[in-house]
Amino acid sequence: MQTSIHDSHFILRRLHSLFGLIPIGGFLVLHIWENGQSHLGAEYFNYYVAQPIMHTTYLLIIEIVVIALPLLFHAGYGLVIIGSGSAEPFRYRYRRNWLYWLQRVSGVAIVAFLALHIGLTRVAAWLDPAIYQDLFGYMQQSLTQPVTLVVYLLGLWLSVFHLSNGLATAAIAWGLTTNAAAQRRFGYVCLLIGVILGSLGTHALIGFLP
């Protein structure tokens, strides 16, 4: 019985890791790239980004199957991991323990941010489909509010950190980095990935500002 529980936990942890990278991580990268088109102007953004989204066949089904369900599983099982974990960053002050703690804290904060983001975008668009006619203008109006801009920047950088640090820990969990030296080297690669994605995402948000 104990072995069965251990095996189930092992499989669930691997699925949790896999869903965090694909499709959730992939969607984050795609979303940053889409928002980066903001620097090409309102007309370009609305025509090449907003309109294709609005006219995508079976968009709701794709969002539920490819994004929502993996995200719900990743977030839900993440809360289980938090509940069973025992990170004590102030007692054990080594880097990996701090990253373990920050990964969990960022995950909770990201869930709150996503609830806000989905409410301001997808839910708002369901209530008023005209938003997608000028999505650029809608985002510009939202992000010119200082509090909203700060929340979006914080949500962006927390998401990027969660992904890049999750990539480093996934490499350990999947046996791709099997010693301390390999883990350290790949950790620097993941740090670089995080800095690049965060910088691109920040640049994309700035593109919406007047």
TrEMBL record:
Keywords annotated in UniProt: Heme, Iron, Membrane, Metal-binding, Transmembrane, Transmembrane helix
GO CC field: membrane
InterPro entries, per database record: SQR/QFR_C/D, SuccDH_FuR_B_TM-su
Cofactor: heme
Transmembrane segments: 12-33, 53-80, 101-127, 147-174, 186-209
Subcellular location: Membrane
MF terms (GO), sorted A to Z: metal ion binding
Chain's role: Membrane-anchoring subunit of succinate dehydrogenase (SDH).
Protein name per the record: Succinate dehydrogenase
